[in-house]
Write a structure and sequence with these properties.
15% strand; alpha/beta; 507 residues
Amino acid sequence: MEPAAATNVTPLREGGDTQYRTPPANLEAEQALLGAILVNNAAYHRVSEFLKPAHFAEGVHGRIFGAIAKLMERGQLANPVTLKNLFDQDGALQEIGGAQYLARLAASVVTIINTEDYGRTIYDLHLRRQLITIGEDVVNEAFRHDLDRQAPQQIETAEKRLFDLAETGQAEGGFRPFAAALGEAIAQAEAAFKRSGRTTGVATGFTDLDKLLGGLHPSDLIVLAGRPSMGKTALATNIGFHAARNYRPAKTPEGRTVAEDGAVVGFFSLEMSAEQLATRILAEESGVPSNNIRKGEVGSEDFQRFVEASQRLAEVPFFVDDTPALSIAGLRTRARRLLRQQGLGLIIVDYLQLIRGDESGSENRVQEISEITRGLKALAKELNVPVLALSQLSRAVEQREDKRPMLSDLRESGSIEQDADVVMFVFREEYYLSRGEPMRRPEESDERFNMRYDDWKQRLEQVHATAEVLVSKQRHGPIGKVTLRFDGETTKFSSFADQAHTPYAIP
């Protein structure tokens, strides 16, 4: 039985001569696999999860495999007889012997034991051919001078294609024994017992919030939303730096490095520069107001605290990427790279409305946001780390008397609420009260005005330097409210010690 010849060839120039190399293929393995399936259809199930018709180098073999799959999906037998009618009119099959070719495939089979090995070989060679295609496209794109396609964009596209290729055809998924899942759950509980914060996830550093959430859990997408000036970035920075500062690596029996406590943090700052973010963290750690640091208004005593804090900060595994208008594909690529190079336990994105969608773009902003949230959730599951994504809120909040945000205020897409495992809002009533100082109304008596003013002043004193974190959705637990203390000068949040502000959960 003569195998069909591969078609595509790739020129190779060496020493001034043009040689030709055929793309890698193993037609004998393809024939052996198809023959084994035709003899015993059960062999198909060994390769059906990862092998597709497009993976065959010979197009006719791919069509035969696809026809076998269709028959088996219908519950029918796939053999040379049942396939004959499907290929009577196939000109390509006629060129290599017609329906008799199917019979020869089945007759030449010695064993079906190696079916999966044949399938893996076919798939591996398919990946190699795809790599050749990507490599050629990268070279051609680099030679082409296109003002709309800068080199960084070309690199990003190439990385995306490579990672997409790596993800296709993987057979690691599928059913697992429930006992294995139970073992992992017990291991998480054991890890929580060993952690100082007694959390199954990455501790936020705020006792009451950790009690409500149990920490930030691996594979979860956590959305932290709020109106401008509420302190979203400050709260996310506080959480991220606490995780990095408490990072304690440990070795598993298999030799892998895992976080016994804390996490290596990757912070994607799409709004602020890395220097601005560093200034905020320095202010928090040193106690020197960030505004004074920016202006250089630092006394000798403050400067010493400033230097000592910077030395401590330099040791923590906190990594910042401040690339503006980063695409979801670029973000995914850089997160994977950080995981390989440094390890990764927490991803923070500030903020998701500044991420770009795919390369083709979308005229519909709602669809683009949906794509971004799906991408962030998929990234959390793939890397098995929590992703904390900040989000803006719509202006509808400003139109209500009670400015506390609700899920319906999430900006531009309901998919944010749908895809997120946890949705939290940060709210500072002091921000609104301080801008709503009562003014005397026409013909209002002094007594009435003074009563209103005293009432406003009392409310302002009650909420001074406080913030609320409203957990409005939690897939794995209760919703509720946590009160934190907020220092605006150093942009630092801390747990609230006043017993009158104990957290409550809504079952």
